[in-house]
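Thread: "does anyone have the structure for this chain?"

Original post by V.I.:
We have the sequence but no experimental structure in hand. Need at least a predicted one for the grant figures.
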Amino acid sequence: MPFQIWDSLEPADKIKRPAVITEDDLDGQYFKEKFEYWAKEHGYAFVVDDAAPVGAKDFSSLILKIKAANADALIFEGPPTDGITFLRQAKDATLKLRYIQGWKAFWPSEFVKAMGKDADYVIHDGFWSENLGTPGAKELGQRYEKEFGKSSVSAGYHYATLQILATAIERAGSFDSARVRDAVFGHEFTGTTRGDIKFNKGGIAEITCLGLQWWKGERMPVWPPIKEWKLKMIPVE
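Reply from O.Q.:
Generated one for you, tokens below.
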């Protein structure tokens, strides 16, 4: 997904020297492999490709390495506490990047509370956003935030599952599991809070991973692109 975003950028905004940092565990190794594979497929080469221990308190050596490589973009995969620590130290070190995207690290609402306005421009992965423009998404997001005091990257995803189940039961005219299953496999469900979802004959629905950009406390969709929002690159003086 980050490489698709980069491919879509205007010539003046093209990413030329990306860096990637992953957590030093099995999860990080999996992501590292995928990032390297897809970077190559899209014609990008990482100027820094490194790992960090989970729970690290000092990222200064990695930040200096990224700075010395003159990187213009960063992909960071790790827990939220590490992401917050990294970005705070990167700011103190005046690391200038035009694009920052994280996996896991930047998606909790607590990230915005901890970073304040410094969360602006940062992108994270997710399953859903109330700003997707899908039916009922805005209302559901507002209800969720009112009840739990924070926004969600998944509430509408799970809500859509229930919408699909209810529709399948109606189509089947029965609660019989086999008939309900047959009403799902190979069928499309339109107008859910996650948009239109189509299942193949094997019962799998492929869902596009979302790219969401923090802006003034809200998650704004940048991938797939929507007409209501345009990706904001980080201004570098």
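V.I.: this helps a lot. Residues 155-172 form the longest helix (18 residues).
O.Q.: and The chain has two domains: 2-127+209-223, 137-198.
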